[in-house]
Amino acid sequence: MNAAARSFGVSLPGFVLLSTLGLSLADGSGLTGVAIALAAVVMGWFTIRALAEHFKTQRWARLAAPILLGVLILVLWEVTVRALEVPFVILPPPSAIGSKITNSMPLLWADMVQTVVKGALSGYVMGCGAAFLTAISVDRSPFLKRGLLPVGNFVAALPIIGTAPILVMWFGFDWESKAAVVVAMVFFPMLVNTVAGLSETTAMQRDLMHTYAATYRQTLFKLRLPAAMPFVFNGLKISSTLALIGAIVAEFFGSPTLGMGFRISTSVGQLALNIVWAEIVVAAIVGSAFYGSLAMIEKGVTFWHPSQRG
Amino acid sequence: MMRNILSILTVVAAIIGLWYLLCIPMNMHEATQQAQRAGAEVTPATASERLQLGGIALAVQNPTLWPGAFGQDRPRLPSPDQVVAELWNTTGAMVLSGRSMTKRSLVFHGWITLSATLLGFVFGTGLGIILAVGIVHSRAMDMSVMPWAIASQTIPILALAPMIIVVLNSVGLQGLIPKAIISAYLSFFPVVVGMVKGLRAPGMMQLDLMRTYNATRGQTLWKLRLPASMPYLFASLKIGISASLIGAIVGELPTGAVRGLGARMLTGSYYGQTIQIWSALFAAAILAALLVGTIGLIQRRTLKRMGMQP
Q1: pLDDT tens digits, residue range B251-277?
Q2: Are B163 and A268 within 8 A, CB to CB?
Q3: Which of A88, B12, B105, B168 has a CA between 20 and 30 Å from the CA of residue A224?
Q4: 3-state secondary structure chain A
């Protein structure tokens, strides 16, 4: 504990002090500012190392280490950009991005609703639902299953995002075309995972259902679907990222004057990079929230699985 | 093996059949238009009446005009044979006539995209492996960097692509390098996450054996950890290379590039050249399949020589 206190006692105050110093005299200070920022980074890194060495099992340390690394990078970014007076069109400082986010909340919210709720989410539900039902109906025919699995695996590795211009041409500029792109992107990964999950039961378990004289439907609902859930959630989680990517990139090919992809592609053209960064921050938050909520549901549904019991 | 091939062929044939069938309602409006101009009887007589109808209703009312739905110049949905013919005309036929590096040739455009993909892939996987080695050997890096690497999988980082292109363009970098950077960071994170898992694959027993041999950390890495990580490495390389290709294609979209498969799709969508979009899409798909297949082949040969696979 003594060693821990000593290493913290130097590095943490050092990091805080150097960071505040760097931030307060950053503007136009040139290489001096950069040197202070680098010193702050070194101090911050020592803090993380002290955390890792002395508190590796503590829960708060596991949370604090990545947050500290994030703060460290933000400080380095902010001070360096302001000290060297990097042009705004190349890299805006984080503070400018932050103030842009707070200033243009309504705009970001409207873009988010257009892209995520209307485009990504509706397509995600349709695509994953269709893939799930297809998997269950295909499951009764071993012949089709043998054919569909390799084809599905193959298609899942293809750059499906390239169908975006075609689907925008068919379904128009509004959210319908984005939902269609999302359906095309999530269908096969979800299908392959569900089909694989449905064949997860062992012969022993199926025999047991047989001795109970369970019907196909009972076996499906009481044994095979629950057993398939880890795979289904894996497919759902992969698809959540794909859905956001599909909805955003599809907007590069044409959209109403609204949406995250639209804002990114037009603002990049006007070199208004702070709004672009703001959209990316929103996309990151939405993406991890989406994934995180799926992981929470998974924890509740597949509580029996070894990976959840930890 | 034979049974599998039969199943796969059935599924593929079903998809192609469905595609041909879809061509009829998709292209029926144009087909009736052309038939009327040629003097045939069409059953809602005016074009505005036909626009009220859906494609399927129109197809049902004019069964004699179905052949007109195929072989159009700018169909809404080109038939498979049109796409294959266009693919052959822009690749094989041009190679045979020695014009494989002209602007109409997909070999040329494919090469532009491929070179960016491969350059980015090599850098991305190289850096990914180095970071994974660092994470496995330093607890501080493990605690601070790893959560970010995992979180980055859940956010749509592809949204950064347009900004990278434009920012690098404003500092004078154009063409290959910006696209390769996008490819690199898309393949980077899957490799980091996969390799960390792989380098940790050796069990306690094996690590203890290395310790009894008095092996240094470097020796343990070279003789135990790296060989043990090979299956994980190849699995993440497959994900990485298809992500790289997608990155290179999307990297060609925002600046209105004139060369590359993404540029072919973009110009095709500007000028309504549907056949061109579809052939570029299939060229990208074939490229992806070739790249993943090559890695699969290397994987099989390497693992066989290492004795990890029969």
Answers
A1: 887 665 678 888 888 888 778 788 888
A2: yes
A3: B12
A4: CHHHHHHHHHHHHHHHHHHHHHHHCCCCCCHHHHHHHHHHHHHHHHHHHHHHHHCCCCHHHHHHHHHHHHHHHHHHHHHHHHHCCCCCCCCCCHHHHHHHHHHCHHHHHHHHHHHHHHHHHHHHHHHHHHHHHHHHHHCCCHHHHHHHHHHHHHHHCCCHHHHHHHHHHHHCCCHHHHHHHHHHHHHHHHHHHHHHHHCCCCHHHHHHHHHCCCCHHHHHHHHHHHHHHHHHHHHHHHHHHHHHHHHHHHHHHCCCCCCHHHHHHHHHHCCCHHHHHHHHHHHHHHHHHHHHHHHHHHHHHCCCCHHHHC
